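Case study 2.
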Amino acid sequence: MSLHEKTINDYAPVDLKSDLEQNWGLPLSFYRGEDALNLDLRSIFRKSWQYFCPAVKVAEPGNSTIGHVGDIPVVVIRDDEGVLHGFVNMCRHRGFPVATKDQKNCNRLVCRYHAWSYHQNGAFMYAPGCQDEKDFPEEKLGLKPVQVFEWGPGIFVNYDMDAPSFLDSHPEIAGERNKVGMDFSEDSYTWTHSTNHSVESNWKVWYDNFVECYHCENIHRGSFAAAYEADPKLVNTRFLGTFMSSQFPPKDRKSKTELRAGNYRSFNIFPGLLMLQHDDLMILSQMRPLGPETTEQRVDYFAQKGTSPERVQQWIELWEETFAEDGEAVSMQQKGLRTHALERNRLLPDREEAVLFFNSLIVNAYVAHSG
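Prediction:
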């Protein structure tokens, strides 16, 4: 068997750890194919906390919102007592969604296929004809719950009910938030709007690109690298177990944009969660795989109070340009990865420490999943 014909099943997860320690990336078979996608969904996205939506979407009792956590459809609702609940968005009858859009004043969740209904806490309420069945097991037919957590401006969800809480999963994040001055006060930022990017690459290709700035001076010379010093030696980066904390200095010389922000701090939280604040703007974002070679990047923009709408829009345009440039780069990369021409890539630890760090978390998830 030639190297380029190997599948993900030909590699032991423990051997992948050893290869990473020698600065070799994951074998390229992990960036293509249904087997790789299913492994990532089951070992990572169905077991990890992910950003779901801005907290303002479920700020009031009766508010509900829908989305996905990995491949799992989810609905989150705040009940009349103010308690947040999250459920798999599938009716216990035939799997049709119990919510097909965001709602206000939602006092029950109703499947519009056959009209089965559920209380705000997920308990079964009623199904047409259920009264005609003797011993109908309604106590077993509540919606399947997921974990939900509100932290600052965001709602976070984990499909795995047995997983540790968000803060226990990331034990250093609360202290790091205080250290870098991440502002969670309610009157500091206002959610403006969302964008959604469909990227033609495996999510790990997008993730590798997303966490390093080795490419910034080349790909983002007129966008991100025009507003920030992109030299990795000038960025203050800390790797803290399950996330990366970064602080970029503003550009100190003339560039293609006059935009500058002197207070950039961000958390890249495994897997694929970005929490970023700088002068004028905050971003919350989450990536997820849509297929073996397709990734979704959801981005929510928040305007800092007191910043002019025109300046906020300038920042959003800069970030959207940055995401578009990244999308073009990784889609070109993915075309090569699907050819099977190479077995793996060699990384530069001084410039791609973040890639090695997050790849190690991916491999750790594979090891745990393999038992």
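The chain has two domains: 50-167, 182-359.
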